[in-house]
Amino acid sequence: MSIGLRPYLPSDAETLAAIFVASIEQVACEDYDVEQIAAWTSKADDEAAFGARLAAQLTLVATFDGEAVGFASLRGADFLDMLYVHPEALGQGVATTLVDALEKLATARGAAQIKVDASDTAEPFFAARGYRPQQRNTNEVAGVWLANTTMLKLLAANDAGLSGSGGRV
Ligand SMILES: CC(C)(COP(=O)(O)OP(=O)(O)OC[C@H]1O[C@@H](n2cnc3c(N)ncnc32)[C@H](O)[C@@H]1OP(=O)(O)O)[C@@H](O)C(=O)NCCC(=O)NCCS
Fold it and tell me: Cβ distance 104 to 157 under 8 Å?
């Protein structure tokens, strides 16, 4: 099935919140315990706040036959904030399509590198794409500690250019 990509619309908030919860409860549950999963999914409890976070970033929605199956967001020029794929759409290149597009957009915004705080579930996905671990983080979410790993990938197009130009535009 071919994967469509489009920008986030405010009317997507409810569907993307459901994808966020399903992907954490059914996929990330292999790497985090029940309390951690509940704390993580609680970030979508306030749907308006969840939608506002997506609207404030460059958020792309991946679709199968027009139906949303995943989403990813770029904060600023160089931070990949969210990446979630519906459990029924896993392993079909949805995350690859989303991250390919965000890396191109980061490059277009002048970034020489892109960073992500990768969940333990997503770390192998990012490692396979050339992201390298920088540091381990432990963050408190709703009173529960969740670990992730900051990973960084150099964006070749701008890395070469920046070394000569002296700085980020
Ligand atoms: C990580 C995630 C986004 C990957 O989504 P996906 O659409 O299944 O990924 P793709 O189909 O594009 O996979 C691309 C490659 O990565 C591999 N891959 C994906 N998830 C993987 C995982 N958890 N472990 C190991 N390899 C993985 C795939 O096997 C595939 O390899 P291939 O090209 O050799 O076949 C998905 O597992 C997810 O939603 N996880 C839960 C939420 C989460 O942790 N989000 C990240 C927050 S930072």
Answer: no
Number of domains present in the structure of the chain: 1
What pTM does this model have? 0.92
DSSP class per residue in 64-132: ETTEEEEEEEEETTTEEEEEEE-GGGTTSSHHHHHHHHHHHHHHHTT-SEEEEEE-TTTHHHHHHTT-E
- Between the CA of 13 and the centroid of ligand 1 the distance, in Å, is 22
- End-to-end distance of the chain based on CA atoms, in angstroms? 39
Q: What is the pLDDT of residues 72-106, one digit of tens each?
A: 999 999 999 999 999 999 999 999 999 999 999 99
CATH number at residue 30: 3.40.630.30
What residues are in contact with ligand 1 under a 6 Å CB criterion? 23-24, 27-28, 83-85, 90-96, 116, 118-119, 121-122, 124-125, 128
Per residue in 96-134, pLDDT tens?
A: 999 999 999 999 999 999 999 999 999 999 999 999 999
- The range of the structural domain enclosing residue 40 comes to 3-165
